[in-house]
Amino acid sequence: MTVLFIVSLVVALAAVHRPLGDYLYRVVCAERHSRVERGIYRLIGVNPAAEQSWGVYARAVLAFSAVSVLFLYAFLRLQNHLWLSLGFDPVVAHGAWNTAVSFVTNTNWQWYSGESTLGHLVQMAGLAVQNFVSAAVGIAVAVALVRGFARSRAGAVGNFWVDLTRITVRVLLPLSVLAALVLMIGGVVQNLSAGTEITTLTGGDQSITGGPVASQEAIKNLGTNGGGFYNVNSAHPFENPTAWTNWWEIFLLLVIPFSLPRVFGRMVGQVRQGHAIVAVMATLALASVALTTAFEVSGHGTVPQAVGAALEGKEVRFDVSNSATFAAATTLTSTGSVNSFHDSYTALGGGVLLVNMMLGEVAPGGVGAGLYGLLILAVITVFVAGLMVGRTPEYVGKKIGSREIKLASLYFLIPPALVLIGTAAAFATGNHRTALNAGPHGLSEVLYAFTSASNNNGSAFAGLTVNTPWWNTALGLCMLVGRFAPIILVLALAGALARQQPTPASPGTLPTHRPLFVGMVVGVTVVLVALTFLPALALGPLAEGL
Amino acid sequence: MREKDMTVATPHARTPGSPATHGNRGGGLLDPRQLLRSLPDALGKLDPRSLWRNPVMLIVEIGAAFTTVLAVAQPSVFAWAITAWLWLTVVFANLAEAVAEGRGRAQAAALRTARADTVATRLLDWTAGAAPGSYRTESVLAPHLRQGDIVVVEAGETIPGDGDVVDGIASVDESAITGESAPVIRESGGDRSAVTGGTKVLSDRIIVRITQKPGESFIDRMIALVEGANRQKTPNEIALNIMLAALTIIFLLAVVTLQPLAIFSNDFQAAAADSAAITDDGVTGIVLVALLVCLIPTTIGALLSAIGIAGMDRLVQRNVLAMSGRAVEAAGDVNTLLLDKTGTITLGNRQAAEFLAVEGVTAGQVADAAQLSSLADETPEGRSVVVLAKNEFGLREREPGLMPHATFVPFTAQTRMSGVDLTSGDGAPARRIRKGAAAAVMQWVRQHGGHPTEQVGQVVDEISGVGGTPLVVAEHVDGQPARALGVIHLKDVVKAGMRERFDEMRRMGIRTVMITGDNPRTAQAIADEAGVDDFLAEATPEDKLALIRTEQAGGRLVAMTGDGTNDAPALAQADVGVAMNTGTSAAKEAGNMIDLDSDPTKLIEIVEIGKQLLITRGALTTFSIANDIAKYFAIIPAMFAGLYPSLDVLNIMRLSGPESAILSAVIFNAIVIVALIPLALRGVRYRPAAASRLLRRNLLIYGLGGIIVPFLGIKLIDLLIQFVPGIS
């Protein structure tokens, strides 16, 4: 069953990544604007023909995101004055800050439980909108970086407003409608109900909140956002009723990240370069899925051994392997939606989920963010390996000189710095005490929170109370810096690369499409990124699980 | 014959111990005495002000200072052992740099002797063609000479500064800079006019216009270069340094932020006994520093500057002066090599390859006539005709002076032929022989009543068609009509081994373009024979420049050699421009490298040295990073197995104890630097091959090796030091 489940996912992704990648390529490279898009450009006062330098592009990203954060913050603070608030109070200041940042940074870390904190209007017009545009921002930045590789002696890296609009209008909206329809067929609810009062089997009263779940669910996974309508996220039967909706949700969260390398290959004019990137992503992802599943199935401990696997925290309608695959997929894609509770995973299984995020969300990573993260790793690999063939390192024809490596190194420095400093600060200030567990598992809970926030994943290990001013503020900062500092660096790199004239390939050029190179990128990712965290992991999952 | 190997003792005075006297061009052997001699320099480099350029080693030094304080406060064998080895790590790194610099210093000392101040005779009011006496002379010390001064240098005197000969011709001993004892000719005008300060005029008298500014002579620059003074970091070196700094920061963060986590874990396992690694206050400072030093890329950080200095040094050993490290690196990146045909691809001159007779004449007769007509011809072409006739037909060389009846007719540009007139002294009828360009000789035949057959024309065309030069041989015996005897086939002789060289270049992804003044047909034939990828025929300096610009516009880096003043623009435009030392000062100024041997083939070696330099850096970086895996497995269980005994599973090397494990990792980290100094100085072995093959090979050696070697090394050190009291 496990094998069939994973193989069918691989086959489906392999079949879809090509047409979807080609479609995405046509969208971002198209010359013409649709009527809807022209209307939007007129509305926001943008000349769609004007291209932007990397600096202008970056300012546009930042301005757009800053406005989004402020808008969302106000929305959350004022929700009691708006329609469909379901009578909920305004969100507390630190919580509103955290949630505003969380949804704008495509993290979707949720300190609150959705069904008992937020009204339908905030969910739809606030959070769901960000689910679309934050995903579109990620793809736009990735496309700008790819333009840097593809262009020669160019000053511009594209037009942010055009990229944002097109990706939202032509890609995310139609795909989510399709995805939502499929989910509704699968039994996911879609209404504006304020809740249904029912009497349960045991005779108690229960209020079951309905809402626009299917539409949220679709973009939640498709845009690798992860913020669930319900607190228990995709473990909730209204969000994820059956094994096959589970399969569909995993497919949705993987499909765009795995299609984007095709866009890269098409844009640089060498499809095989895209294949190499997909191969790196797939190698890491499959290894991770296999490890998580293996640890969950063969968990230590009395109970897991009695029932044959570690079942605590997992929904019985999805078996262990479907839960493990979802968990691996959601942590590998910076989605952060969950269908089981990562805190209840075996120590080593949970450790793998932690490492998935520590890799920097590149296998395949969030929409857009995964591609640019992996391209940065490829640049670093090329730099180390390229010297070994006796030339100034080049990647798809662009030389990796001191400016390029400076930007790539800084990128590569930021997420680990945030995770490590944040975790150490939690322990140094005593804020780790809100963790449910003591000892290594408690350490994992704290480490997981900062890893998830800094890498914009958003999944929670659970077992940690984060609804305090310190936690909401600190994690909000990690999400903000962890998202936008890398984006600025990526765009600066795009600018530096676009200015360069490509060097034609020759037998003296390092081939970056062969299995050897794929293996090297995997090696660099594991050795340089994961090993940085080994001391911390030793005191958490390793101490607990070995 | 050029003394390429420089084995002849020369006034260059290679000091004993310098690599050249051992004939060891790779310079790989590391003399232990050299390490010892460099030790004072290495200790001097402990000064943080000189270490700040190397952030990785600066961190190690700060760490060593920190552990010293801790060891003084709480002395133990373990603390002092770690402290000592941390200091040694820094010293070893400095030693690598000091050894590399020491090699250059020996060469600089030899050069300084040539710079000894000389007294120059300056001419005032001298103008070209002025008669002696029409100008005044004065004596002035060489360092006081300014640009534009005119000096006269007599036989036996030392030339006081760099300049161009403006009058006269002289033989000059340039061994002070080239190490080559054979004198060279320097004359006014043309491409042989540049002279270098510190070289000696052997015969005759020349008037020189000084072109250098005071203190910026060629020898001054050479000294600065080989000493590595004001050495600028090269672009790749800067980039690599940035990445190493970033890695250092990450590991610094990983180690510093570990402390609160360790304190938390220690509180949780309050029952665990204190150890050398971890107490109630968390991980001890000494162990944290040890972990940090083991994780940051010290190996490459320690050897990086030595690799750069040694790369320049390897060029100097091949008698090439690179004016910047940037040029050496660019040499590794070169995509297109422009090679002059003459001297690089072919031997300097055309040579007779074959005698082709017309009907009714034997090849032997042609050879005999050709030889007779060439006896007085001292040009290389003429000599080759005589030699070929002797080799192929056993015709003895006849001394022109022993032939009283012969009158030799020299070649002139007007007649375009040369020959011999044999008078009828011994009864035979007078006979005249001519050889030369086909058109000229045919006309001569017609003028003397002959009718050259069509066959001659066919042979001439055939030879031209294969890129050769036909010389028609004709004779006119008194009383008979003149007749063409046959044709000498002169051809360019491609140097041995060039085709293989160019095949190698192609495998390395380098395109070779032959530059020649020949017509396209001839050029094509030679290009085919030599195996170059392309050629530029009937090349003018403008064509050359245009070709370089086209290549560069396509994103390719171009390397070329040149010596004439008209090469200067192209040399300046090329990414790697190697000027011949025999060339003009304009050419030498324009290029970014100077080949003291004036050997155009050197360009190929320069490219290889550039590549080797980059490969060495990449290989040691990979090695350094790969080393971390084993160090984690040594240190992490040593630190935390006391708290969580299950972590001892990670101690896969089964090291004897926590102190011993940590100390072994630190010792390995230090020793590996010394062990790799020879490799850093010699450079990684380089064989021309495609990038994919190079990568596979180097990844196997330095990547996989970098993973495995430290496991073995740390285990071995642990086996030894576990017996030290106080360690285990």
UniProtKB/TrEMBL annotation, chain A:
Keywords: Cell membrane, Ion transport, Membrane, Potassium, Potassium transport, Transmembrane, Transmembrane helix, Transport
Locations listed in the record: Cell membrane
Subcellular location, principal: membrane
Described function: Part of the high-affinity ATP-driven potassium transport (or Kdp) system, which catalyzes the hydrolysis of ATP coupled with the electrogenic transport of potassium into the cytoplasm. This subunit binds the extracellular potassium ions and delivers the ions to the membrane domain of KdpB through an intramembrane tunnel.
Annotated family: Belongs to the KdpA family.
Subunit structure: The system is composed of three essential subunits: KdpA, KdpB and KdpC.
Stated name of the protein: Potassium-transporting ATPase potassium-binding subunit
Organism: Micromonospora gifhornensis
Organism lineage: Bacteria, Bacillati, Actinomycetota, Actinomycetes, Micromonosporales
Underlying gene: kdpA
